[in-house]
Automatic annotation (TrEMBL):
Residues 362-414 form the GIL1/IRKI C-terminal domain. The lineage of its organism: Eukaryota, Viridiplantae, Streptophyta, Embryophyta, Tracheophyta. InterPro entries: DUF641_pln (IPR006943), GIL1-like (IPR040225), GIL1_IRKI_C (IPR056813). This is Uncharacterized protein. Residues 1-29 are annotated as: Disordered. Residues 110-158 form a coiled coil. Residues 32-157 form the DUF641 domain. It comes from Capsicum annuum (Capsicum pepper). Signal peptide: none annotated.
């Protein structure tokens, strides 16, 4: 038996050492509003995390490095926010466990840091992959630069062979000396053939649109050149080709093609450069970039000369396209683009003609002239001379001829007084 005083003393000491942890229900009841707010923040944070993850997945298809990096940053931010909420809850709501609270918290923090480390490792691998892709793109661009440099060197060699070197050598020849040694009569002949085909090609849609508009083609052909006796009715197409040709070649003898322009000063050496510059270009792009250039004014003037206003009114039911062209524009209609191809071929032929020294001269033959195989070529391949005619006569000059130095390129003519054999 212990004395009563000693027993009371032992009980007091025992009570002072005993731990009474606060139940979770009681802690929650103390501040339920704070718990609700935290739960709401957790749900909001999880929703934001889901949204960031969806954006991260979407950024991979199609692959967009910038969007991927931005989505990664957002995911990491949301993970950090969750981590902060967890720390805040642990600090304000301790949970009784068998192990030391400090050990449990430390283990949780280690696990969280390991998760973050894995996330950073994934990001590092992605960045390394992006760096490799960039390095590969740099190598490809360097290869393209090398190939472009090789093409430039080859082009400079070709230009030097033609006397068109961009950099003048120290022993440069006189400025008045003709440089386009690569331009020959045969080269010009091929350009003439291209121009003639372009006239023929444009006449087809023109005639078809006249037919569709209900025009009398016989009367139209007779108005161009009256009283021509055609071997076949289909041969009246040459009247329209002749009309197009006459309009297109008007002013060919002039260095500027009779076009007025403020910067009209030109040199003979520049004509071949102009030819080379335009040869590979789409004429629609040229007039689109410089609608008021010499070539732009040429196309505008020639279109108005070749296509009469009555034709346009019959073709399109109005004169909107014509008014647009007259106001300085170049429409993108199929009909006008077909004309631009014709205009380009004649313009290139003109530039090539003035690349020669002396320039190429144009010659024409009149109706009724006796046929000469020296200066003329018949557009009809198989024909026989009428018995009543001593020599076939020129009915139409379809395409003019050219003098290239001492060489004559024959003009194309339609003959009358002949019969066509199939």
């Amino acid at each position: 038996m212990q004395p009563t005083g000693a027993k009371d003393t032992q009980l007091r000491e025992s009570n002072s050492q005993k731990v009474h942890p606060q139940p979770m229900e009681e802690a929650a009841n103390q501040n339920p509003e704070a718990i609700d707010a935290m739960v709401s923040r957790i749900f909001s944070n999880i929703s934001s995390l889901k949204s960031a993850y969806i954006q991260l997945q979407a950024a991979h298809t199609p692959y967009d490095p910038d969007k991927i990096q931005a989505a990664d940053k957002r995911v990491i931010t949301e993970l950090k926010n969750l981590s902060e909420l967890k720390h805040y809850y642990r600090e304000h709501n301790p949970k009784p466990v068998c192990v030391s609270p400090q050990d449990s918290r430390l283990a949780a923090e280690i696990q969280e840091q390991q998760s973050l480390l894995k996330t950073y490792e994934v990001m590092v691998k992605k960045f390394q992959s992006e760096i490799q892709n960039k390095d590969s793109e740099i190598l490809q661009l360097q290869q393209q630069m090398l190939e472009a440099d090789q093409k430039r060197i080859k082009l400079e060699k070709n230009l030097k062979l033609r006397g068109l070197s961009v950099k003048e050598p120290d022993n440069a020849v006189d400025e008045n000396e003709h440089f386009s040694e690569g331009v020959t009569p045969e080269f010009f002949r091929s350009a003439v053939e291209v121009a003639y085909r372009a006239i023929h090609d444009f006449s087809k849609p023109l005639i078809n649109m006249m037919k569709a508009a209900g025009w009398d083609l016989d009367a139209a052909a007779n108005s161009i050149e009256p009283d021509i006796v055609y071997a076949k009715r289909a041969h009246k197409k040459y009247a329209f080709e002749s009309h197009i040709c006459r309009r297109m070649f008007t002013g060919f003898h002039n260095e500027l093609f009779s076009m007025k322009h403020e910067n009209s000063a030109v040199t003979k050496d520049s004509f071949y450069h102009q030819y080379l510059a335009l040869r590979e270009m789409d004429p629609l792009d040229v007039v689109g970039q410089s609608p008021d250039s010499l070539f732009g004014n040429f196309c505008r003037t020639k279109y108005l000369a070749v296509v009469h206003s009555m034709m346009e009114s019959a073709f399109f039911g109005n004169l909107d396209q014509r008014n647009f062209i007259m106001s300085g524009g170049h429409p993108r209609t199929a009909f006008y683009q077909a004309f631009l191809k014709l205009a380009k071929s004649i313009w290139l032929l003109h530039k090539l003609a003035y690349s020669f020294d002396p320039p190429v001269r144009v010659f024409q033959v009149n109706r009724g002239t006796d046929f000469s195989e020296v200066y003329m070529a018949s557009v009809l391949e198989n024909f026989t001379v009428d018995e009543n005619e001593e020599k076939p006569k020129v009915g139409l000059m379809v395409m003019p001829g050219f003098y290239v130095g001492g060489t004559a390129i024959k003009c194309q003519v339609y003959l009358t007084g002949v019969k066509v054999t199939d």
